[in-house]
């Protein structure tokens, strides 16, 4: 069997709805193949959740049919955050959990994510085995053994109570005004309730999904509306979730954006403050140099991995550490959850605010982030300009120029047909010019979408 995956990327299978592989026939076969491989524990149950995209109805039906053909029962939750499915998969002792979502992408995209019975993302070897099974013809189990589908009506209530249980039982959020942006995604009926029931004054935006407005000018990838609302309301802070609720970006009381690196710093430094820190922090190649320096200054170890929360998770397990993060807002807290959970991460930052009696901005005084420039270039799926000599030479030239005062990272996205350029350094004008130089070299040497 080849070790190269054909369909699974860094975060499941994702693509444009109606184009292979995000088509009803492929997803039906995927459900069957996954059902055949994942059915181990004898419960024959799979939890299926989705975000608020209109295509979720179609893909849910296809998955359900494929799983039924493999003899597995589907428990449908309706719109639920990705981490909620990981949690429910464990509590129901299900064979697996499946989420229909394209995370922070717009509604035209969709995807499929799998969780193991332990609530963790599937390892590479299981994904490869599922792909091998896809090459076979579908064989239905006997009619008497076909799977059935049921709805889990109290899924939201179960997950809300779980989230609240990660906040100190002897504390509350009374006196805090919080603006919450749910990106018109799967946290729309969860997050406002969690923070309201813990005592805060919640102002909710992005809570009216219509199937096509998910992530549109809302959520963790676009916090402008949240920043304005925080300032207009004179709120203590703002919380921005992505479409499937596994990413969190925050806004402080002054309207400043607070990214995943800064959130991880607050959680780790508060754990140190409370004498509860176990090990250090795992980040990625995108982690800001300023965050690494800030952790070093207070004596917290830091390790970098490849980009992708699955690699952060692998390193956390290897080190037996508890806190991992990506700049984009994936925060993994292994003493509380088994995957990135935006609501739970936000609650840990709020714990620090309440415990230390400081504002969000004050908790970040130990961190000075280096300026970063991020550029995305849409490329054809079969194009790889990083192999071109001119592009390689340009990147090497920029890297030598920056030396130890900055860095450059150029990579293909694992979830979209994009080439991502990141340049980090002390001078914004300079790094912007360097990023533009690399982008121009790429544009001259690649096939564009």
UniProtKB/TrEMBL annotation:
Cofactor binding annotation: Binds 1 Mg(2+) ion per subunit.
Metal-binding among keywords: yes
Cofactor(s) it depends on: Mg(2+)
GO cellular component, one term: cytosol
InterPro entries: A-D-PHexomutase_a/b/a-I, A-D-PHexomutase_a/b/a-I/II/III, A-D-PHexomutase_a/b/a-II, A-D-PHexomutase_a/b/a-III, A-D-PHexomutase_C, A-D-PHexomutase_C_sf, Alpha-D-phosphohexomutase_SF, GlmM_bact
GO molecular function, one term: phosphomannomutase activity
Domain Alpha-D-phosphohexomutase alpha/beta/alpha: 6-137, 158-255, 259-365
Residues of the Alpha-D-phosphohexomutase C-terminal domain: 374-440
Sites of Phosphoserine modification: 103
Reaction equations catalysed: alpha-D-glucosamine 1-phosphate = D-glucosamine 6-phosphate
Record-annotated active site: 103
Amino-acid positions noted as binding Mg(2+) in the UniProt annotation, renumbered to this chain: 103, 242, 244, 246
Domain of life: Bacteria
Keyword Phosphoprotein set for record: yes
EC number(s) from the headed UniProt entry: 5.4.2.10
Entry comment on modification after translation: Activated by phosphorylation.
Keywords, sorted A to Z: Isomerase, Magnesium, Metal-binding, Phosphoprotein
Family: Belongs to the phosphohexose mutase family.
Function text: Catalyzes the conversion of glucosamine-6-phosphate to glucosamine-1-phosphate.
Protein name (database record): Phosphoglucosamine mutase
Organism: Candidatus Photodesmus katoptron Akat1
